[in-house]
Amino acid sequence: MKRWLWIAITVLMTALPVMAEESYSVPLTESYSGGRYIRANIDDIEVNFIFDTGCSSLFINQSVFNELLRRGIVKRKDLSKANEAELANGQSHAVRHFNIKRMQIGDCVLHDIQASVGIGDQPNATCLFGQAVLERFAYYSIAGNKIYFEPKPEAEQQALVIANQLSEDTARAQQQRIVDALQPYAEWLSPRYLVIYAYALYRTDQYEQAMAIFRYLLDSGEFEDSDRQLEKALEKVL
Fold it and tell me: Could you tell me if 89 and 102 lie in one domain?
């Protein structure tokens, strides 16, 4: 992407009215193991989650998942194929992903959260509150027995939703569809999702824009902080 385009994006973002998001605070409860529980409401089902920054998704146990099925909140046809998820301890675990349309944390309502359920888990395994929710926050902090947070603007959250949906199985998704879906949100994408967009540009022969984004990521130093996906994509195109 040429320098003038980055300048145009910066000017456009500066010109747009800034809409402050509301800040929230939610109580945390200490568990017997020293972790902290946070309570969330999924379509009127109260669920206690362990606050776990090492978990990449919102992990739901089989018991809660069965209740979601029973109420028709989730349908089996909406489940993804089995995937391997890496736990905080480095072990792999078979999971299936699905979408939670509405989840409330205190007074804050979030939509379209990617969740996962373990295959062959104990029915009452611990539910984990991980990065699939935390990446929706502009910031969060823990003080005492509360978590304080502010959700990202809706447009930025929607960009994450689109990127998650399309990156689950890019073999099925047309690369141009990824470009078309993410282009309006390019200025809000984090390095993890920006590389999905750049790789789709590359696969649709838009080499100049794709390489400019890769160079931007490398020059900005954010490459070191991003996940393995960026490294793999760079190996394929650089």
Answer: yes
